[in-house]
């Protein structure tokens, strides 16, 4: 891996690029290489290995500006990011997932954003391009990208896959919540505390990075089940319940998508019942049309990016993933009825 190393002295805006890693041998070397190829050179790289089966230090070359830390046991991405932040020398923390590849100008664009816009944090989005050609990986990538494109520039939902934040303020706000043991909404929860404390997060929609995530149906369903469950608990634990929805602090999901989510069980029941009574097929078709209309923004986006066939397949998978989300919402509501094991969101 060829590298141009950072300058020896810490400059006026020195970046600590923190990369949490777990079993990331396929992607982590490329993530590190993409950072080293940046045209902005005032940085260090801190890799925090969350007790991977293969140690990161065994396949990442040692260098003057690369520090590798290893957890003694698996702690989860929130704890792992926090550990990296505590070891950081920079005044700007740049959190980067181990399957994210930055562009040559990513760090310099972040620097420019801090200088010109005066935020306390800058977050970015996934690029529409990705290394995988399969439908599921592209569906997942484009769905997340479109969600962030629908959000306002001043946001309260940061994306920890690419998140730059002033270290001093990160410490004041109180780091990521290590209570989230798996990748979930720890970045959304952090963003809410961050903005509630009076600080500003800018979503730079031109600050895009390549997401090298090979998705399977199981992985998507797992994601779309557990994250809504955590989001429901997060919202219900919020003191300013109505304000959460008003400012869309916790999600980029539209009201139409929430309605479509509620309709999905009726679609599947009608579709299955049509084998016994043809009238139910009409109901299923009607519900399909309604769900397509409620998700038209996403379907048109899929069409513009990948074409008609992709968009039609996207409609089918939207119904599947919304069903998983509905089950997750039910789980979140049920969990909230039990004694609380997590402090309120505010």
Which key terms come to mind for this protein?
alpha/beta, 12 helices, 9 strands, 346 residues, 48% helix, 2 domains, Spore Coat Polysaccharide Biosynthesis Protein SpsA, Chain A, 9-stranded mixed beta sheet
CATH level 3 topology of the largest domain: Spore Coat Polysaccharide Biosynthesis Protein SpsA, Chain A
How much of the sequence lies in strands comes to 5-15%
Give the CATH superfamily of the largest domain. Answer: Spore Coat Polysaccharide Biosynthesis Protein SpsA, Chain A
Indicate the radius of gyration in whole angstroms. Answer: 21 Å
Helix content: 40-55%
Count the DSSP helices: 12
Span between termini: 45 Å
How many separate domains?
A: 2
Task: Give the C-level CATH assignment of the largest domain.
Answer: Alpha Beta
Counted beta strands: 9
Give me the CATH architecture of the largest domain, please: Alpha-Beta Complex
Overall SS class:
alpha/beta
How is the biggest beta sheet arranged?
9 strands, mixed
Tell me about this structure.
The model is unreliable at 1-11 (pLDDT under 50). The protein has 2 domains: 15-215, Spore Coat Polysaccharide Biosynthesis Protein SpsA, Chain A; 220-336, no CATH class. The N and C termini lie far apart (45 Å). It is α/β, with parallel strands linked by helices and 346 residues long. The protein contains 12 helices and 9 strands. It is globular and about 70 Å long.
Helices and strands in order:
Blueprint: E1 15-21, H1 28-36, E2 43-49, E3 66-70, H2 77-86, E4 92-96, E5 100-101, H3 106-117, E6 121-126, H4 135-149, E7 154-155, E8 162-166, H5 167-173, H6 186-196, E9 201-211, H7 217-236, H8 241-246, H9 255-273, H10 279-294, H11 296-306, H12 308-337
Parallel strand pairs: 1-2, 1-4, 2-3, 6-9
Antiparallel strand pairs: 4-8, 5-9, 6-8, 7-9
Helix pairs in contact: 4-11, 7-12, 9-10, 9-12, 11-12
